[in-house]
Automatic annotation (TrEMBL):
Family the entry assigns: Belongs to the protein disulfide isomerase family.
UniProt keyword terms in alphabetical order: Disulfide bond, Endoplasmic reticulum, Isomerase, Redox-active center, Repeat, Signal
EC code: 5.3.4.1
Gene label: Pdi
Catalysis performed (reactions): Catalyzes the rearrangement of -S-S- bonds in proteins
Thioredoxin domain ranges (all copies): 1-87
Organism from which the protein derives: Dichaetophora pseudotenuicauda
GO molecular function terms listed in the Swiss-Prot or TrEMBL record: protein disulfide isomerase activity
Descriptive protein name: protein disulfide-isomerase
Organism lineage string: Eukaryota, Metazoa, Ecdysozoa, Arthropoda, Hexapoda
Keyword Disulfide bond: yes
Amino acid sequence: VLVEFYAPWCGHCKQLAPIYDQLAEKYKDNADIVIAKMDSTANELENIKISSFPTIKYFRKDDNKVIDFNLDRTLEDFIKFLDANGEVADAEPTEESEEEEEAA
């Protein structure tokens, strides 16, 4: 499951929306990949750290590993990441990008 944790007021989240929608459309018939998003201003997850928006995390089903998505937010990089089951260089947790908006 790939989850975008977003805030409705976040400009970067709004910019990502059409790309993320295209990604969801591409994988809508794939039983192994779910594309989801969650309003982090209305929901909290105890074990998931969200420090900026958007935060994108991949929850692998085979080993329950949670992988931060840290590639470019392009359709091509999302596809490369998902097709590699999150095993892509720069996919592991790193420092948050400066362009992301701070969580309120």
